[in-house]
Amino acid sequence: MLARGPRVEFASQPARRLLREFFGHADLVRLPSAVETWLDGGAGVPLVRCLGERRITIDHVRGALILDETRDALPLTAREREIVAWVARGKTNAEIAALLWISPLTVRRHLENVFAKLGVRTRTAAVTRFLGLLDDS
Question: Which of 119, 112, 123 minimizes the C-alpha distance to 86?
């Protein structure tokens, strides 16, 4: 990824997205100043930056930067995770209720709690957040 100094030789599209999202950095000819400062300091330990429940870790390995994005665990109960997993498989509330031996109204209540915890309004958005495909925005 690096050429000489803080100049970027190559950056994949996901790496560009991560640098833009975590550092507000649009120019990919040079690295963000925080990354430059970290490299100038020797880059002895990985650089970590958080954005909500998301975290990026940057490591310097043999002249390249390795970017790794992780997420904190979603604040869902085991039952809520189970229900969202069934939603992800395309099941309706009635089908989920039959599978779990609970009322369809209980399924609906669990989903309402999931929507509130994840900050979404639809089943599709809940599933994409659950699967890690949707950002906080």
Answer: 123
- Residue 3 phi/psi, 5-degree rounding, is -100, -125
When divided into structural domains, the chain yields a total of 2
> Do 57 and 102 fall within a single domain?
no
- pLDDT of 137 above 60: no
Quick one: average pLDDT of 77-101?
A: 95
Specify the higher pLDDT residue, 71 or 99: 99
Q: What is the pTM of this model?
A: 0.52
From the number of C-beta atoms within 10 Å of its C-beta (0-12, 13-18, 19+), residue 19 rates as: buried
Cα gap 107→84, rounded to integer Å:
10
**Confidence band, pLDDT 50/70/90 cuts, at residue 27:** low
Range of the domain at 115: 78-130
Rg of the chain (C-alpha set): 20
- Distance CA(113)–CA(81), nearest Å, equals 11
Distance from C-alpha of 111 to C-alpha of 100, rounded to nearest angstrom? 14
